[in-house]
Amino acid sequence: MENDGAAISLSPAQVELMSFNDVEVLREWQNIDILAHSQAGGWCLLIENKIHSAEGKGQLLRYLDRVKRDLPDRQIIPLYLTLEGDDPSDAAVEAGYLSMSHALVLELAEQIINQNRSRIPDDAQVLLDHYLATLRRLTMQDQELVDLCKAIYRKHRQAIDLIVEYGTASSVTAAVEKAVRSQVECEFSDSAATVFRFLPVSLGECLPSQDGTGWPAMPRPVPILCACRYEKEAAQLRMNLVVGPFADGEKRSRLMEAIKDAGFKFKKWGLKPEAKFTRVVSCIQKLTTNEDGEADTSDESVHQVVAALWKKFWKDGEKIIQVVKNFDWS
């Protein structure tokens, strides 16, 4: 359902009738993160799991070729799993890769575990509870952890800001921040090791604060943010405009419907009240290469890349502003 329009020959009904007694799950088989396959069912699930890293050049296609070579009699379902449901490369999409987010895995796992809790053995339940807690931390949906982080940040704000600024932020992210600020007047921003999040003033002026949003470190709770991420392995910058979670899920659904009606495409899950983070605008710009054929991460080069990226990104950003202005926030 999340990959409507993709060429998937398996139907939900077929999956429901399958027996999973012979399923074998392999980890790091020929460098593939997770490989699950069934001889009786004739299928193979290939999962590339990315957390705080990007797709390597040709990586997904190589993995798919290896599985086709070694399991030629199986129907292969290749999956690209990331924190926010990032799209794989165009070549990987053409090869059949589907995308999925850890946030969606959390939603589905919670539903299935709660439905079957009375039938799950105690030792398995402990394992599953730890797994759910890990997913909540990864997707910043562990409220106890968020509250603790807020308290620590309030108490040690100056020290933490210095650590972020001088200790963990990469030189590329620092160059990205400088370049974005030269292009965009920001209401506020936040920098981490590989991502620079910001709210353009032109968007913030028409964007009211909303309770229960997904960026607790920001000066005010806003439902939409822009982010520019440095994807080192792919040698590129990715700029996203993301709608976060609301305390009022129905209002979020109405906003997503309005964004959809304005011509923006995103996964169907983003329309649900319980959806968390939905990327509605995404643009990529490759870093230029130096004379050695390596990615040029100098400040001057990064500045040029960010300028080109912002120019094409903000064409859609201005359309989002019109949606926000016309939306009934009451």
The outline comes out as globular
Structural class: alpha+beta
Number of extended strands:
10
Q: Compute the average pLDDT.
A: 87
Tally of DSSP helical segments = 11
Low-confidence stretches: none
Give the DSSP E fraction (strand runs of 2 or more residues).
15-25%
Radius of gyration: 21 Å
End-to-end separation: 31 Å
What pattern of helices and strands is seen along the backbone?
A: HEEEHEHEHHHHHEEHEEHEH
- Main beta sheet, described? 5 strands, mixed
Strand order of the largest sheet: 1-2-3-4-5
User: Which percent range fits the helix content?
Assistant: 40-55%
Structural commentary:
It is a single chain. This protein has helices at 12-17, 59-70, 90-94, 102-115, 122-138, 143-155, 157-168, 171-183, 201-204, 249-261, 299-326, and strands spanning 24-29, 32-38, 43-50, 75-82, 98-101, 186-191, 195-200, 224-231, 236-243, 278-286. Helix 8 crosses helix 11 (299-326). The protein has 330 residues and is of the alpha+beta class. The chain is globular, with a radius of gyration of 21 Å. The chain contains 11 helices and 10 strands. A hairpin with a 4-residue loop joins strand 2 and strand 3.
